[in-house]
Inverse folding.
C-alpha cells in the first residue's frame, strides 16, 4: 500500500500519521489546471521514504540481469544519447483515497494528486537493445535509491514492467522536467518515466535496471493492486483511468474552501485525461448529476497529456453542485460513485463542487 500497511481508519478523523504524510507530500492546487504544463512547484508529489542524497557526478544506472552485455551508464552517458521531450500527465494511483468510506490509512489524497510536465530524457528501448535481452527475460525490474520499511518489509523502492511495456518508444530515462534538471524531490538525477501508467511505475532516483526471467514480487509490486480485502490477491494497477477535473469557479472561504459565485454567465473550465485512450467526451452537470450537458473540448494534445475543456454555465442564484465526468476513446467513463477497494487505488469517481451563487 502507498504510505502504510493495509489499515483502515476507525473513524472519519484524520490521524497524526496521515497529517505527517500530507506535510511531506502535496497535491496540485486545482487552479493549476489552467496551465497546459504544470509549473514544477505545483505538480503533485509523493515520496515513499526519504529523498536520497545524490551526486550527478558519480551517479550510475546499472543495467544487468538476463542480458548479454551488462552496462553501467553515467549521467554524461545518458545525456549524450538522443533526447526526447514529451508532455505527460502523471497521477498517483491513490488519488481520491481520502473520499472512501472506510478510509484506507495512507497519504490522504482528495482529487489533486496529478500534474502534467514536459519530461526530457533518453528512450530506454535502445539501451535494452544494446544490452541484449536474453530470450528468457520476461520483465525489467527498476530499483530506486530510496530505502525504507513498508508493510513491515525493509526494501529499496522497486517496480517492474513486462518487456513489451519497457520496450515502448515513449518510456524514458528522464533527467529534466520543464527544461530544468530534475529537482531532488522528483528523482534527481534520473528517473524512469512510463507514460500512461499511474505514477508508482515511474521509479525515481533510478539506480538499477534488471532483466528478470521471473515476475517481480517485491513489496511495491503487489501493494499496488485492487483487492477486496487483505487476503485477496487482487488485480494489478497499471494504466490511468479516465478523469476530468474543473477549476472551482468563483472564490473560496478560507477554511472550508466553499465556493461563492456571482450569478450570470460563467465559464467552467478544466482538464481531462486517461492513460488508455484519448479523451473523447466531457460532460458537466449543475444539479448534482441528474442532468448533463456536453462541454467543448480543446485540441487533441500529445498522446499522454491532458485535454482542456470548457462549458458556458448560466449560474442562477441558489445552491448548486457542479459535477464533471470524462469518457475516453474506448468508452470508459467515470463512475458517479466509487467502488470501494482495500488500498484505495485507481479511484476516479466524478468531482463534485458545491457552489453558492449569489
Amino acid at each position: 500500500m502507498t504510505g502504510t500497511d493495509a489499515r483502515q481508519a476507525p473513524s472519519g478523523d484524520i490521524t497524526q500519521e496521515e497529517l505527517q504524510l500530507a506535510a511531506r507530500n502535496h497535491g496540485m492546487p486545482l487552479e493549476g489546471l489552467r496551465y497546459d504544463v504544470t509549473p514544477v512547484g505545483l505538480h503533485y508529489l509523493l515520496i515513499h521514504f526519504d529523498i536520497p542524497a545524490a551526486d550527478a557526478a558519480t551517479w550510475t544506472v546499472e543495467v544487468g540481469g538476463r542480458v548479454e552485455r551488462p552496462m553501467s551508464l553515467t549521467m554524461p552517458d545518458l545525456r549524450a544519447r538522443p533526447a526526447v521531450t514529451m508532455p505527460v500527465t502523471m497521477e498517483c494511483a491513490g488519488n481520491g483515497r481520502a473520499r472512501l468510506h472506510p478510509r484506507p490509512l495512507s497519504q490522504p489524497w482528495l482529487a489533486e494528486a496529478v500534474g502534467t510536465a514536459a519530461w526530457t530524457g533518453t528512450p530506454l528501448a535502445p539501451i535494452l537493445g544494446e544490452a541484449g535481452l536474453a530470450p528468457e527475460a520476461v520483465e525489467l525490474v527498476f530499483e530506486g535509491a530510496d530505502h525504507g520499511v513498508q508493510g513491515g518489509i525493509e526494501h529499496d523502492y522497486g517496480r517492474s514492467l513486462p518487456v513489451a511495456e519497457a520496450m515502448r518508444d515513449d518510456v524514458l530515462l528522464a533527467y529534466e522536467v520543464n527544461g530544468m534538471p530534475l529537482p531532488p524531490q522528483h528523482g534527481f538525477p534520473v528517473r524512469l518515466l512510463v507514460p500512461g501508467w499511474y505514477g508508482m511505475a515511474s521509479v525515481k532516483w533510478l539506480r538499477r535496471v534488471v532483466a528478470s526471467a521471473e515476475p517481480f514480487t517485491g513489496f511495491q509490486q503487489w501493494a499496488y493492486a485492487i483487492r477486496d480485502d487483505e487476503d485477496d490477491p487482487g488485480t494489478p494497477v497499471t494504466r490511468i483511468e479516465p478523469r476530468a477535473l474543473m477549476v472551482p469557479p468563483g472564490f473560496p472561504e478560507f477554511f472550508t474552501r466553499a465556493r461563492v459565485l456571482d450569478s450570470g454567465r460563467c465559464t467552467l473550465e478544466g482538464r481531462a485525461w486517461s492513460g488508455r485512450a484519448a479523451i473523447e467526451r466531457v460532460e458537466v452537470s449543475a444539479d448534482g448529476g441528474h442532468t448533463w450537458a456536453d462541454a467543448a473540448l480543446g485540441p487533441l494534445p500529445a498522446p499522454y497529456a491532458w485535454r482542456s475543456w470548457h462549458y458556458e454555465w448560466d449560474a442562477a442564484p441558489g445552491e448548486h453542485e457542479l459535477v464533471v465526468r470524462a469518457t475516453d476513446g474506448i468508452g470508459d467513463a467515470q463512475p458517479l460513485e466509487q467502488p470501494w477497494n482495500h488500498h484505495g487505488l485507481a479511484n476516479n469517481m466524478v468531482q463534485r463542487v458545491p457552489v453558492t451563487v449569489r
In short: The two ends are 44 Å apart (CA to CA). The mean pLDDT is 95.
